[in-house]
Amino acid sequence: MRKTFLVAAILILFYREADCQKSIQLGIEATVVKPDMRIGLTDSGEVVSIDSIHLGIEHRHVFITRANGKGIDAVEEDLLNRVAFQSSDVGGYWKLASFTGKVYDEILSHGYEYEVRRSAEDEALEYMDNLSKENLVFNDSYLDDYLSSVLHKITPPQLKDGRPGVLNVRVVKDPTPNAFVFPNGMMVINTGLLTAINSEEELLAVMAHEVAHFELDHYIRNLHDAKSRKATAEFWATFATVLAGAADISIAANNKGYTPGLLTGAVAAISWGVASEIYNRLGLKFSREQESEADAAAAGYLRLIHVNPGALSSALAKIKSYCIQNGDYYALSGEGTHPAIDERILALGSPIPYDEIDYDKTISLVSSYNALLEFNERHLVQCNELVDRNIKSGVAVEDDYIVKAMTTMLLTNDQASDTACLAYLTKAESLKVSPDEVLYKQKGLVLLRLQRKQAARRAFDTYLKSLVEVYNNLNSIQDDKLQMENKKYLNGEISWTKKMIFKLGVM
Q1: Enclosing H/E stretch for 380
Q2: How buried is 218 (Cβ within 10 angstroms: 0-12 exposed, 13-18 middle, 19+ buried)?
Q3: Which helix (H) or strand (E) holds 130?
Q4: Less crowded by CB within 10 Å, the N or C end of the chain?
């Protein structure tokens, strides 16, 4: 009967006063898959316990307990070069990846560097606080719960080796397909990443890649190499100023059916230059070697849970496709946050086609939101694809059908398409989920194309009444700036609608 060793997974760092020797207790249960007689591990398939790593006078040593109870004290470099291990459980897999990735070497050399980690955590919180102030955090409790459940499949939320940080997920309003993990364990996923992919397998793969960066302490190594950093207060004051200029104008009115995202102008993503500075500052600008290491670790995890690593390749291919369509060449040239993307896809293997309706149902509110972003940027093909995903999965709401009609009208000009647009708007009007007054404006425009002038005038009459009702409720908005933005927009719409009604009366 195979003897297994369950060693407490608590990492302890201590110093011996006599010779300043350092030691870390590991407690990794692993199976030998490549034995070596010189190390004393001769049996493939043997379950051992990798107990500790300690720093001797000349070499680091690893102490291993074999299944027969006998101990082995091996030079770490010899062990890693000659023997291969694998772990059958998720927690053990990542701890083993940290061991073979020489994370604990860094800890033995530099300590846990709690001051550096705490400083990085403070700045991560500063980053998210700035985004929250500008309404750039996507809040959807259902989606947050789903993403947390996916993250928990990948790894326990907290490292149990003395390093701080608790893994959690936040979603940011940005159409750029990107994700990263801050040093404190906060994983940031852009709305653009969620809609660039089409399945939970791809999402799992991307999140596993980011978890790998966190587990392998890549950011700490990068912070060691940082040449210069602006003072904290100066940097974040500049960031807040730039962000305020780029952020979405979020109009929070309490009146019925008012959908600011659709009615107001474009929402700007955080500029590449600003994002790049933040990545550099917090050690998140990864080298090609680090990206490859994270890819390999994520692929190993996927194989452990019986998911084809091609899921990560597929996600990368879709990110590449989005970047090509939208001219984001930084991501493709090796200068962006996904360096050498073609090399990574090639190393991971052929992408797998994924298209899951259940996944689309889960992220439907993100798809609706991103469709508005893409429409405002006049990325009409991408916009159309997003609303089509919601319609196909049966979870489309009013905004989806309205945007579908608007996009179709911009892309076509024939009676069949115009009739289809009217059908989309009629469907939106029948839903009664989250009514939006702009529907009647769009309906009037479609009816004009179809030469139905009287029906178009009735639609514009309804739109005008709705606008006036919204305007009369503006006092409910406490923020003066938001109230002013509402008035400016509504005055313009009311004036335009009155002129259209007059024009139809004399046509």
Answers
A1: helix 380-392
A2: buried
A3: helix 114-133
A4: N
CA distance 181 to 163: 15
Q: Where are the domains of the chain?
A: 13-110, 114-348, 394-506
Q: For residue 359, what are its two tokens?
A: 């996944």
Helix or strand (DSSP H, E) at 403:
helix 398-411
The interaxial angle of helices 272-281 and 232-246, nearest 10 deg, is 150
Question: For residue 130, what are the CA distances in angstroms to 127, 182, 306?
Answer: 5, 15, 40
CA distance 276 to 471: 41
Domain 394-506: assigned CATH number: 1.25.40
Helix (H) or strand (E) holding 142: helix 141-154
Q: Tell me the C-alpha distance between 31 and 48, whole Å.
A: 6
Task: Tell me which residue of 145, 485, 456, 205 sits closest to 345, measured CA to CA.
Answer: 205
Enumerate the β-bridge partners of residue 52. 25, 63
What tokens does 237 get?
A: 């004051």
pLDDT (tens place) for every residue of the chain, 507 residues total: 333 333 333 333 333 333 333 788 889 999 999 999 999 998 999 999 999 998 887 888 999 999 889 999 999 999 999 999 999 899 899 999 999 999 988 888 888 888 888 888 998 999 999 888 888 899 999 999 999 999 999 998 888 788 888 999 999 988 889 999 998 899 999 999 999 999 999 999 999 999 999 999 999 888 876 555 667 888 888 888 877 766 543 333 223 233 333 433 334 456 655 677 788 888 888 888 999 999 999 999 999 999 999 999 999 999 988 888 876 655 555 554 445 788 889 899 889 889 899 999 999 999 999 998 888 888 899 999 999 999 999 999 999 999 999 999 999 999 999 999 999 999 999 999 988 889 999 999 999 999 999 999 999 999 999 999 989 988 888 878 778 888 888 999 999 999 999 999 887
The CA distance from 444 to 104, in Å, is: 66
- Vertex 278: Cα angle to 275 and 282 (nearest 5): 145
Whole-angstrom distance, CA of residue 297 vs CA of residue 300: 5
